[in-house]
Amino acid sequence: MTTSISVSRSSQRHWVIEIRHARGLRALRGLSLFFGLLVFGSCDAAQSGASDSPTAATNVAATVQPEESRMWMTVGERRFAITLADTQAASAFAAMLPLSMDLADLQNNEKYADLPQSLPTNASRPGTIRNGDLMLYGSRTLVIFYLTFKSSYSYTRLGHVDDPDGLAQTLGREGVRIEFSRN
User: Fold this and answer.
1) What is d(CA 27, CA 16) in angstroms, rounded to the nearest whole number?
2) Which of 73, 161, 166, 180 sees the fewest Cβ atoms within 10 Å?
3) Domain 59-181: assigned CATH number
4) Under 8 Å CB-to-CB from 79, ≥6 apart: which residues?
5) Per residue in 114-145, pLDDT tens?
6) Domain boundaries in the chain?
7) Beta-carbon neighbour count of residue 29 at 10 Å?
8) Tell me, what's the pLDDT at 22?
């Protein structure tokens, strides 16, 4: 006597769907675990590279910059390295060097002066201006910021002072003569 077990097609289909669903859940759990580890690893790497000094990361980045993306700003006896932005305006500004300029103070947070000629622009609103930002306002006004603050104005990025510690004290609150050079 042979016993036959009959399974309907809908039961088979239901069973296959359950197996596929279980495989999909396992795959999702695996992906979740992977991305979770990726996020925690990134956080850990960021924290281990962090420092009490906000310029530590900038200093590390500055040491690996190629020479063509570097320029210098000299104020009196103090010399600051500037890493140029990867913009047409920054390239055009670097082509003007060496350049000596008398910069006036504005709002006790920036120095500015008009350049001898206009530069290409690609202005955007940075939101937060950082101590050491070298920017272009309009197409001719060079601005070096020596304090960090929020701003709704638009600027074209030219570069950033690699280590802006002491920049505010060096620039002072009055007008100042600044020499920009490639070396």
Assistant:
1) 17
2) 166
3) 2.40.100.20
4) 72, 73
5) 999 999 999 999 999 999 999 999 999 999 99
6) 8-50, 59-181
7) 10
8) 55
